[in-house]
Amino acid sequence: MKDSSTKKALNLKALTKSSVWDVQENDIFRILDGGSKDPDFKENIRRYTDIIRSAFNVEEIKKDSPAIRAAYEKQGYKVGAFSIDENAKMIIAIRKRPIMRVTDLTYENIRHITASKLMEVLERNFGGGWDSLSQSIQDIIESGFEISTTTLPKDRLHKKGGMYEKKVADGFEVLEVEKGTWVEAIFAKLKPETVKPRMKFETHDEDEIPEDNYNSPDEDDDSFDDDVMNEDNYRTTFEIESDPDEEAESISDFGGED
Question: Which residue intervals make up region (Disordered) (predicted)?
Answer without folding.
Answer: 199-258
